[in-house]
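Chapter summary example.
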Amino acid sequence: MLSKKQIKAVYSMISEKLGSVLINKQLITPGALSLALAVQGALEERERLGSILCDYGLLNDQDLVRALAEQSGWPVFEGEFILDTEMVLILGKAFLCQHAIFPVVSVDGAACVLSDPYDTIATDHILALLANRVKFFVSPPRMIMDAWTDQKQEGSLVTPSHVSGVVDAAGMLLDEAVAMGASDIHIEPSEKVVEVRVRMDGVLRFHRSFPLKENPRLVNIFFNRAEISAGDFMRFHDARFDHVVGSRKVDVRLSHIPSINGSSLVLRLLDKTRSAVSLEDLGYAPEHWHVIKRALQKPHGMILLTGPTGCGKTTSLYAMLGHVKSPGIKAVTVEDPVEIRLPLATQVPVDVKKGHDFHQVARAFLRHDPDIMLIGEVRDEKTASEAVRAAITGHRVFSTLHTNDAASAILRLRDLGVDYSCIAHTLICVVAQRLVRKLCSYCRREEFVTPSSLPEGERVFISGTGTIVHHADRRGCDRCFEGFNGRTVVAETLFIDDQIRFMIEQGLVHEIFLKMKDREPSFSMRADAARLVREGIISTEEAARVVG
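The structure predicted for these 548 residues follows.
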């Protein structure tokens, strides 16, 4: 058994070697390595160097895995994550999940995919049980976690017959929703039963039902966890609590309304352990990607994301912040709530009871010498005023507005009391977006259509006299839900160039709308949806449903 001092020396040696590999491959800078090593030395519980670099946004997980593969001599896993159920019985599911290991079916015998080749406790245990007859591969932790989540989606979760009482039912609902990747749970009493629906990929799906008599007890369990008085069913409530599923900590936002059939709940699920998506992975079209990158290069000014609730505005803001964030930049955020923990950023949650509203926190931020301010939402005149003041005084400001298109953001700012001159000289770019469900690439159906064969609302998304489009197979397959798998973004962008800036100063907003229509068609949201239809990523039905 190694002493703590010996273990620390081993970790330091591994970190030093990995750091050299990463620097030699020009994947990180010496400054980034110094920062990560300093953080590693300051942590009470030892953490891997690669994990720290990824958490701080200084390295992506794919590059880390390739470096670990080179250092350890294990190959990167590039196959399909098909679970070897016999290996699960031998090794134990709890052990595999705890160490982020996925046993895969292999024609060459036993094979395991790990995220950490230096987890000697795990590797020694596997080698002992399998008598050294096993191959090891390396893969990013998120891919291994996604593979386990896919297994749960295929039906390995606890079924209602195993539920022992309403307490277990409450926890089971949360566990299932998190494993399925749901964003919300809707608990809705009807005249005869309690119906439970979950929102996945932006669409509500029926999940299960409970006897109506169980609803008060079920609601009281959630009330207790959210510290709401038991039996207080006749008032509106908004509260929150934490729920842990394995290694994932989920922030649950509870909303209660008293309906005619009893208490109705909506539980919004925010995974605190998930990391920000990179800007490149969001799926913006090349035209929009070019505009966004150009806007992010500006030293000061305001970038706005617009769209309805649930269209991915906050995710895009995080991605933009992650794209420009570095150890040399001071970034501060005010959010309601803080959805993702960002390294190298000071994040403040909105708390009206304590006087921490958007505009109050934004005003305080200016005394912290920030380079970038992320304001979760511009929802009132005071917040708009503080956001504009920050942009005018040399800061970069990222925020969101609720408007249907990019040009309407100008009118919305004017409604919030910002004069046209300030808008013209602070606004850099507006991105309006929606989220559309992607077709499952394994079971989608192909069909040749003509404009006349489609409903009127879908014709605008195809060109010419006829073309091949793809549709969802509602029967689905073992890799999707009813023919859909994940979502991507459709967007339109408005970059404030000199001509548009002059129009804003003169209050010629109507002319800006006309200019948006006369621009290259590829910049409109409808054209972006049509591109995804041509590429077979979405269906014409989905394009019409979301974009209209």
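To summarize the output: The two ends are 66 Å apart (CA to CA).
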